[in-house]
Amino acid sequence: MRTTLRMAALALAALLAGCGATIDRITGEGDADRIRRVGQRGEAVVLDISDTGVTLNDDPVVVLHLEVRRGDGTTYTATARALISRLDIPQVQPGATLAVAIDPADPAKVALSGRPGRR
Predict the structure, then answer these.
(1) What is the pLDDT of residues 78-108, one digit of tens each?
(2) What is the pTM of this model?
(3) Among 32, 50, 65, 94, which is most buried by a count of CB atoms within 10 Å?
(4) Count of domains observed in the chain
């Protein structure tokens, strides 16, 4: 009986670990967390926002088309996938300026840093 319970607990732990990785992949948060840790600070103007049709705890996963401004003043466009609180959606509309982290290895990869509207 104890062996069965132990096996069930291990199976549940493996399943939950796999779910977390899948959620990070779907939302883009796994890669975004890495970029936030190692990235360079910048800001971006939202050019367009579109819904992916995916939600997590009623919060939408969106695709943001951004004009990114580096610290040296150079600009370029990039696309980012982000999990946005439904309460913050009004602050993530075209024209909004957001704090971002820029991947030093691939500047085309950016992640929102912090909650929109709070820089």
Answers:
(1) 999 999 999 999 999 999 999 999 999 999 9
(2) 0.74
(3) 32
(4) 1
